[in-house]
Design goal:
Helix content: 55-70%
Number of strands: 0
Radius of gyration: 22 Å
Structural class: mainly alpha
Strand content: under 5%
Length: 260
Amino acid sequence: MEIIAAIFADFLPLAEGRNPSLTLDAPILQPPQILSGHPLGTDRQGLDILSGVIYGARTSLVVGFGAVFLGVVVGGVLGLTAGYYRGKVDAGLNFLNDALLAFPPLIFLLALSSVVRPNLENVTLVLGVLAIPAFFRLTRANTMAYSQRNFVLAARALGARSSRILARELTPNVLASTLAYAFVVVAVLIVAESSLSFLGLSIQRPEPTWGNMIASGQNDLEKHPHLVFVPGGVLFLTVLSLNRIGDWAQRRWDPRSRKL
């Protein structure tokens, strides 16, 4: 439901949740009232919490899945290449991957936030770069294991080209476990984006995200806890759901898990 609401947010009959100039006559700090025009209440600017949560879901899901897609594509291709060819190619790519892992992510994000504008595209790109090493290591390890299987050895004996072996034999087998792991990484990156928004290093108002909604409501937490608990609860349930989906996908798609 959350994904559907985020996709069709522009067509839903939602109260204003992004532009404070359109809420001059709206009640401020209204508590949640299910049957009212603001079922989850409003914030100090009169912005609708339900609308902010739904638009924040769009932001979080786009950042999470977009960054993971970048990590899977780049890290997966490099991992397949390193795991299959080995030797100097593997050593060179491993060195680059280790260099990226050695750089502290928080410092990397702080440095980039001072150089690039913290909009949706840039945040997705930055978090996608940080996701590359994890997918590189996973695909490299799986490629090295599968490249010694009989079906790959048979393809080599029959004279198949390396490009065909990578595309037809290795990629489908490696991709299953990679996609299972991807759901867990999406959850991690959603938390990362929310943390950055809370600290003021990611997407800022007027575009709502769960992180900046929590940050804007923290000063009123004692008297108006819904300002923090609503976006925080949605964030918690989303991350929990993605982790559960990742566990299910690993049991369903990863052959090693089915043997346990």
